[in-house]
Amino acid sequence: CRAKVSATDYKEFLCYNLGAANTSADPFIPGWEINGGYWQWGRAAQAAAGPSGPGAGDANDSAVSGWNTTGAPDGSWSDGSKTGNDPCPAGYRIPTNTQWEGVFLNNAQTNLGSWSNSAINYSTGRMFGAELMLPGAGTRNRITGALSSRGSFSSYWSSTVFGANVMYMYFGNGYDGTDDDSRTYGNSVRCIAEDIAGLSCGAATITGTLTSGVPASGVSASVPYVGGDGSAHSGQITTSTSSGATGLTATLLPGNFSVGSGNLVYNITGTPSGSGAALFVLDIGGHSCLMAVPVAPPVCRAKVNATDYKEFLCYNLGVANTDADPFTPSWEIIGGYWQWGRLPEATTGPTGSGADDANAGTVSGWNTVYAPDGSWDDGSKTANDPCPPGFRVPTKAQWTGVIGNNTATAIGTWTASPTNYSSGMKFGDQLMLPSSGSRGSFSGLLSERGRKGYYWASTMSSTDPNEAWHFLFDSTGGSTDRFDRTHGYSVRCIAE
After folding, report:
1. Model pLDDT for residues 178-190, shown as the tens digit of each residue
2. Pick from 6, 5, 4, 1: which is nearest to 16 by CA?
3. Which of 321, 377, 397, 402 has the largest count of CB atoms under 10 Å?
């Protein structure tokens, strides 16, 4: 027994309503033996039996003692996968509302029998195509469970929740459709075959690597399933959810399930924002699960000569949020300001996006004494170097290499303002430096935020003992220069 659920795809159904008295009876001729029982939505147990014989005394049409008037909770039956409360046998489940709508839209319909309302009228039914017949079994009252409309109307549950109500399909003599109503009605159940018996997101095999901020290339997830029926599927396109790394799309192309076990291959594209895991809701073959694909922390690097890359930290020292996107300028990644050769931060960067949080004013107790020679050093990392283990303040030569060997791309609007956090310079594809401005050598007053970036090198000036080298850039590009060691500049650490 089967019917089309789309323009091209057939789905198998059980040949009888659940609870039918005789599953050896002809499933295409209406009769009391295939009328079946009645279920309340979301319940595993039959709420009321169908007829037990052809006579009036066997109709089982009266009110039901102890009829449950409390609706089953959401999730008792589910569109996503077969639940523990689903009364259908193994390999089958309650159809979704979408599947019922597909049956109506894609199959020629033929009425059978004499359509009149009677508890013992078992003559009616409707053919959907040539291989599915549903009897006109009526429905049971949501308050008492009393039967009504047998022979003139029928309603069959779907698994689909609709607000406080749930969806069901119905038909009568000359009409049909789907609608929502109370969960405590007693309706017929006709089970549909599952495309697959189970989908295992937790056992997915990931090919390739995702890295935060780097476009995905050659990344896929192979998700195993069991109990495939060989039917066609239309594929799926799903995006990573907001609770994980966003910016990614997983695409399963249309195809066919294998008979038995197999794998579904989702190709992953896009650029992940954030690290940890990208989460995808897979919904295919009547089952759903949550697939987690690892996303590595961003790798930030740039060429320091014609052939060699060096890794940098992805953030300026002292940033407010190391989970922020390191390639998108924002107040969270401006960071603090250091005087050359000093270990502690001279002053913090912004603590919010507003003018009151810019930390742009003079700094009480600003140090106007130059740090001595050797406080930072090109030859090796010193005790005063503020970078974490494995990193150090870059040398002038390294900054010069960055300028000469990477394409510089200006980002944002380049105007000087304490609250302009929109601008930065990208060097190559994997290093972005925000235009964080600088702090004056005498008072620590902020200037040029949003228009220029100043980053210390470890290199001392060979001509002026009070100066050291730094890297600076504006919207047109970068260069190196010397200035007083008591200025407050950003620090971006390079790997040792």
Report:
1. 999 999 999 999 9
2. 1
3. 402
